C-alpha cells in the first residue's frame, strides 16, 4: 500500500509525457521554432510551479544552498528533453519517439543505479535488469516496424 502513491504519480507522469510531446510538437510546428515552443512550455510550467510554491509549499529560498552544485542543472535536462521530443515527434511519430526516449531513460537509469551516481542508492546491474532493458530496446524496434 505504501508504494501506491508513488506508482500513481509515476503513471500520471507517463501520461503527461505522452500528451506533452504532441502538444509541444504542435506548438513548434505552429510557431516554426522548437526553441520558442520550448520556451512557451517552460514558461507555463514555471508559472504553475511559482503559484504552487507560493500558495502551498513556501520552502525558504535559502534552502537551495543545501543542494550540491550539480543538482542545480536539472532544468537543463528538461530543456533538452522538451526540445528534442518536440522536434522528433512529428518526424518519427509519438510511439516511436517515446519508446526511444524510454529505452534511453532506462539505459541511463541502469547505469546510474549500478554506480550509485547522483545521490542514488547503488543497485548493481543484474541479469534480470539487463533482460528487462533488452526487452524495452526490442520494443523500440517492434514499435518502429
UniProtKB/TrEMBL annotation:
Membrane-spanning ranges: 34-56, 68-88, 94-112, 124-143
Protein name, entry field: Inner membrane protein YdcZ
Organism: Sphingomonas jeddahensis
Superkingdom: Bacteria
Entries under SUPFAM superfamilies matching the protein: Multidrug resistance efflux transporter EmrE
Keywords from the named record: Membrane, Transmembrane, Transmembrane helix
Cellular compartments per GO CC: plasma membrane
UniProt xrefs under Pfam families: DMT_YdcZ
Lineage, top ranks: Bacteria, Pseudomonadati, Pseudomonadota, Alphaproteobacteria, Sphingomonadales
Amino acid at each position: 500500500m505504501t508504494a501506491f502513491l508513488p506508482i500513481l504519480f509515476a503513471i500520471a507522469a507517463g501520461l503527461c509525457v505522452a500528451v506533452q510531446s504532441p502538444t509541444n510538437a504542435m506548438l513548434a510546428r505552429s510557431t516554426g521554432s522548437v526553441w520558442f515552443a520550448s520556451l512557451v512550455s517552460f514558461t507555463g510550467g514555471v508559472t504553475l510551479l511559482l503559484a504552487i510554491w507560493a500558495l502551498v509549499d513556501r520552502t525558504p529560498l535559502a534552502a537551495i544552498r543545501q543542494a550540491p552544485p550539480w543538482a542545480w542543472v536539472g532544468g537543463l535536462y528538461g530543456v533538452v528533453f522538451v526540445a528534442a521530443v518536440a522536434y522528433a515527434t512529428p518526424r518519427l511519430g509519438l510511439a516511436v519517439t517515446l519508446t526511444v526516449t524510454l529505452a534511453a531513460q532506462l539505459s541511463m537509469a541502469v547505469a546510474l543505479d549500478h554506480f550509485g551516481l547522483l545521490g542514488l542508492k547503488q543497485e548493481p546491474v543484474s541479469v534480470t535488469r539487463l533482460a528487462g532493458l533488452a526487452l524495452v530496446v526490442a520494443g523500440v524496434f517492434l514499435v518502429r516496424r
